[in-house]
Specification:
mainly alpha
């Protein structure tokens, strides 16, 4: 890699700010143009615009990493090594968290079904029961 950018911290900051301002300007320009032509844009053009934005954001991130001479590969290796060991240490907590999530989802589904069944019973307060069931269902889920 070239080390021309790493000699001066002020230059690194300037280049970083230029990349961020360029990306923000690009997003604002895109939003302005999309709002201006609202319904006249074809789907393939929207897909192309978003793909280009994605590529430019990735290029901007890589440029920032390059400007600051960051060893990204070493950071990823360290992260995955630490990630594997932390998963091995906390596997029981992860399993119990998954079990808790599934049990609570099951209980909420049963509660929602019972509220609907309660609301559908025929009597003089059917409208009130239906309203209570809808409100309770929206609060729960």
């Amino acid at each position: 890699m070239l080390t021309i950018y790493f000699a001066n911290v002020g230059l690194n900051w300037g280049l970083s700010i230029a990349v961020v301002v360029f990306l923000i300007g690009l997003f604002l320009l895109e939003a302005f143009l999309l709002k201006k032509k609202d319904l006249k844009i074809k789907q393939w053009l929207i897909l192309t615009i978003y793909a280009a934005n994605f590529i430019l954001v990735i290029a901007g991130i890589l440029a920032l990493i390059y400007f600051w001479n960051e060893s990204f590969v070493e950071d990823i290796k360290t992260f995955f090594n630490d990630f594997g060991s932390s998963i091995e240490q906390s596997i029981s907590r992860i399993i119990w968290t998954i079990v808790t999530v599934f049990v609570s989802a099951f209980v909420l589904k049963i509660l929602r079904l019972s509220l609907r069944k309660y609301a559908n019973k025929q009597n003089k307060n059917k409208k009130r029961k239906m309203t209570i069931a809808k409100i309770s269902s929206s609060i729960i889920l």
